[in-house]
Design goal:
Length: 506
Amino acid sequence: MSVSTTSLILVADTNLFIECRPLEQLSWEDLQVDDITILLTTPVQDELGKHRSTGPSKPRKRALNFRKWTRQNFEDNETRKVIRENGPKVVLELSMALPWDQSLSDRLDLAKTDDKLVAIVSALVKSKREHNVALLTADRDLRFKAVGCNVEFKLIPKEWMLEEQVPDEDKELQQLRNEVANYARQEPSMHISLVNPEHPNHKSVTITTLAPITADQLDELVARLSRRHPLQQDWHVMKPAMQAFAMTRFEPPSPAAIEHYRDIDYPHWLALCKSMFAGLHQHPANQRPLRLRLAIENRGERPAREVRLEIRAEGPLTLRRPPDEVHDAQAPLQPELPPPPCAPQIRELPAFQGLEAFARQHVRHGGNIGAVVAGLSSGMDDHDSAQSIPRTQWRYPDLELPLAVGAVGKEALVYENWEEGACCSAASLTCSFWRHQSTARLIEFDVLFESHHASGGRILCEVHAENLTTPISFAVIVKQNVDATPLYRQAVELIDATATQSEEEE
């Protein structure tokens, strides 16, 4: 038996009756058949009843309207209603006792309305093989179930759906929102943004800092330094017999000078260099702070009065106001190791002794007896340990001047109890009169991380004003990454840059 292509039986889902326009207004010709029968099944009627009693306002109202329509169009004991006479002919039929396909019970939950509709369509397909039977729905999940059970379905066209209408309560809510917006326009509109040329829209900043050199690396660096500048062990001089006919004679340094060099000066120099390596991460060249720049402006239609800007650090962070002065621009940036201590030298003395030597020294020093004595005694112990190891001085990098914070007078943005270079966890700035539609004010401050490990936190900025109902908040996420490798390389370069004794002699 051939299946008719001009007739169609549709098992309608609930959304056809509460989410679509009235049945008489739908463009049924879109389905391209001559005769359409719409089945209003028991599961759908039960669901419409639930919407009428406990459903949300919109579905409830539409379910009530559809019930009113059915009562007006169906006489007693009447189960069919012609919706449209032709082009195509459309009939709505109340189907109260349709069976469902029990063979699908292993794939469907027949206690649910959607699953019952799929089972009903499957049963109709098997019993009415001479008709085209399909499920009519706009429900995505129901379509998936139909496909899984090999049941044909028709999708309700979007043009059939009701346009969303704003209910009265929503209209009242929108009216209140408009009133609030109008009221807000009478206030200043403060806006805070992060000045970040690389990422203008980002609200997070990450800085990479250098971690301290590890204990094992410190030992390796000290060993490397000792190899480049070894401790002098030999003060060999010619034997007296070999100096018999020489014009000069050589004497080794005193045992006390050698002991002082070996046991005090050289170990102290190594310890000083090791301490310097351990503190490289604190050198200004390696400890650039994270500087935040904020732009604040009043975009509203009214000036702001008695403005207070509060800045607060949340997490292991500290705020620092940059100093207005800059250091010497000519100062070098990189640190240098102190030179190694000078080993006691072998003294070269004249072969003659006594008054003649004293006379020569007397003439050399212009008759100054004290200078002669000092000159003769200088060879005995010419090693001053206190001055042989100059202490390293850090040399600071150039620091940028802080950006101007705005106008002067009552429009000035003034730091409140926050001195230049001072650190704190919370700070504030005030302004008596902030003009609207003016150029953004720029402020900047440094964020210092309290730990040398990877860490992070948040910088919270709030703007309060006398004529501002709700404070304006702006948060910036700050993060610190740590890398220890560059410091070890830098320390090695410092060692290699020091000249050995042989290089100095050349």
